[in-house]
Amino acid sequence: MSLCAWPLLAYAESSPLDAAVLRVSMLDPVVVTPTLASHTTEASLASVTVLDEKQLRERQPHDITEMLRGQPGVDITGNGAFGKATSVYLRGTGSSSTLLMVD
């Protein structure tokens, strides 16, 4: 028997994974602010919008502007042709006051 087959034999003889090991638990979303203080979205003093994986899969955006389009208080302005600069404005602020965090 070649040495290459030993890992396969070891894997075949191992016991199947226990269901408790495979259990996945979801944690509450945490907002990380520019001051590096972390808290839940409910405890935030600012208006926070979270787009989760389910929403992104439903929308299937091609870029971040499509993802943000239609969010309350968000205005997106494209400057020029496709691929050129795009500005994101939050209600009452300029584009330099907008913080966009992608995880």
From TrEMBL:
Ranges for domain TonB-dependent receptor plug: 43-103
Bilayer topology annotation: Multi-pass membrane protein
Gene3D superfamilies for this protein: TonB-dependent receptor, plug domain
Coiled coil (residue ranges): none
InterPro entries associated with the record: Plug_dom, Plug_dom_sf, TonB-dep_rcpt-like
Superkingdom as given in the UniProt entry: Bacteria
Keyword Transmembrane: yes
Record-linked SUPFAM superfamilies: Porins
GO CC aspect terms: cell outer membrane
Keyword Transport (UniProt): yes
GO biological process, one term: cobalamin transport
Family assignment from sequence similarity: Belongs to the TonB-dependent receptor family.
Name this protein carries in UniProt: TonB-dependent receptor plug domain-containing protein
